[in-house]
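Hi R.,

Here are the chain sequences for the assembly we discussed:
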Amino acid sequence: MLTANEPNRKSWIEVESNSDFPIQNIPFGVFIPTDDFTTIGTRIGNTAIDLSALHQLGYFSEIEELPEDVFLQDTLNDFITLGRPMWRKVRNRVADIFDSTNGELKNNTAHKEQILFDVAEVQMLLPVFTQDYTDFYSSMEHAMNVGIMFRGKENALMPNWKHLPVGYHGRSSSIIVSGEDFHRPVGQMKPADAEVPVFGPSKLLDFELEMGFITTDGKHLGDRITTDEAEDYIFGMVLVNDWSARDIQAWEYVPLGPFLGKNFATSISPWVVTLDALEPYRTESPAQDPTPLPYLQTSGKRTFDIEIDAFIEPENSVESKICTSNFKYLYWNISQQLAHHTVNGCNINAGDLMASGTISGPEEANYGSLLELSWRGAKTIKLDGGEERKFLQDGDSLIMRGHCNNGTTRIGFGEVRAKVLPAKE
Amino acid sequence: MLTANEPNRKSWIEVESNSDFPIQNIPFGVFIPTDDFTTIGTRIGNTAIDLSALHQLGYFSEIEELPEDVFLQDTLNDFITLGRPMWRKVRNRVADIFDSTNGELKNNTAHKEQILFDVAEVQMLLPVFTQDYTDFYSSMEHAMNVGIMFRGKENALMPNWKHLPVGYHGRSSSIIVSGEDFHRPVGQMKPADAEVPVFGPSKLLDFELEMGFITTDGKHLGDRITTDEAEDYIFGMVLVNDWSARDIQAWEYVPLGPFLGKNFATSISPWVVTLDALEPYRTESPAQDPTPLPYLQTSGKRTFDIEIDAFIEPENSVESKICTSNFKYLYWNISQQLAHHTVNGCNINAGDLMASGTISGPEEANYGSLLELSWRGAKTIKLDGGEERKFLQDGDSLIMRGHCNNGTTRIGFGEVRAKVLPAKE
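And here is the predicted structure of the full complex:
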């Protein structure tokens, strides 16, 4: 049997040549079709596919162990809990159903009406329920840039940074799906020239270009997941915009880390691209020196070549690309992150989100935040519509798009987008 | 109608004079009775009361809006979502049913067999499902002690500390209920005299004496909860032991805060004592100087007088009290904590846990951690069985007990207990 990744496959559903969603992708998401119910689905080209309807109509009958209601859910969590062999069976079967050589659904108009929807007409929801959201800090270029700005070149990287993937716990309740807008946060800040803190809307609202992986259920509390086992516990990846209010964060974060400067909103893309789909885009991470402790060691291609672009679209204006980064720049790979997270026995669950931290690269054009692109406000970013920015203004939409292209096949994540609404006073 | 708090009330269930659970308490918890199901319940004296059986047998028929299956649940979350007026109705009705003057259940042997259980024979479970766990740092004495140890007396308190209740996000997945033991965490540490980090079991395992409040559903993302509204969003409180591996934490925590040094386990007590039950124990917080910003201001008695004692019980030895603290020592009260947490629009859900941070008091006997009691290992703590401790050893159980006593009535939280099992290598 062909796998979904087979590069020569074509679908009988029309797919534009620059689409993120050819038949080689088959991501998973949750949406509300035109009707009044919620379903798990996938996407080919601009067609959203209702997997619960496919299942109900018997198209998964050969996968005996697939629970009857597994796609008639508000989140992917139950499906994720079934584990990698099942994700793989479903993804490969979907590729078969939509293969251009397969007529079983293609020629059944009545079934197609129940199963296929225009992506523009469905409402995408959060793909998973996340109990725990962790954010790492795994881009050396980003850590260096921030370190230089706030502590000078000599002390830019903290002593622990090259020994472990630094991370912290984020807020799960305020994770929102692409398309949900949010209000500029208000809070307490202390301007450099002020004696006492002030209260008001954040003036230094920023995005952070990140990606995140979504886990399945791990081991029991007390048992660690090794770097070799890690990928078995990872369902797939999404784009993450870890919105940051730099002025709130700067005043609050000592000594326990970011809190209100981050937890007002975190946006993620709606389609989870599986690690299986990312397989053809494996690449090596930057060399690690010093060699990490044994529990963090990995070999071979343990990361992925994923280009991620960010755009600002001011209200009533055009979008402008402000940076291009790549997931492969990260110093610490996802297997190292997960092994570190669980080495003390910390348990993980299906739906947990573990984000990379801001991904910056070696060139200025690769910097993944306005803090770095404007170098803490010292520089101005010129936009295509004539506007200028140092940080985000009300009405600005920030859009991130990510895709892989190995010269043979392109797959992608679509986009994650949200607009900054004015602060509520 | 009498409320549950009425000090002269007595129950027809026997209650020892020093019990934490007289009829004036009526806490809520989740347990597995002798049978093979899970129920929400309450407790009077040493009797666990199955609220789902009470409901099924018609004892709540006068509370019309109470959903049929609300007590036949694995967690309190759905009940909490019903809101304060319902919590109050149920609690007052339970007090009526068990009032010594009421014969309706007292004289019904068949019903009593279905409803009443010996607490020693039921298994307590986690009372709530917690999506988000936040830990504050609201004891000035604790922050001062830690600051003096690590930064010296001059810089003990960070500049932000008296302006806002510093807090951070913790890990929800590893919250465990009293009685669940855990393994000593392993991880990466950097001893003061080492050139490079080492890997192994934590040598500086500590407890943190804390309490936490459990919220109900808050407002929508973007809307804040004011200090005046805050208590309406708080269901009740539990004892919290925020286990800490000091050596793992010291190496990892810059610049993003505690992570693996904390997220291997957090223990909570199983019975949630409602704010209504705590009403007679209201007291004032320490004076705040400087006056906080308006969004953090409160007046009147916005905290509670709750004594909390901690004990070490080495394997095969006796328990020894190691400290006595009090919830009232906290500089920031729970209304300020919740108002701060949501001022940027961060949303909260039923079951969220917000802990106080280590509660230390003015005297050495009030210090709420071994870090402070042993002054970073400089002092030795002598136990009643002849043992000595600076930090926790394998086989040690740490027990915390908390209660209120206003001279008329005593209510309490019972205990939170866990044993340190040896590290898994």
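The domain at 3-125 of chain A is CATH 2.30.30.230 (SH3 type barrels.). The CA atoms of residues 25 and 108 of chain A lie 24 Å apart.

Let me know if anything looks off.

Best,
T.
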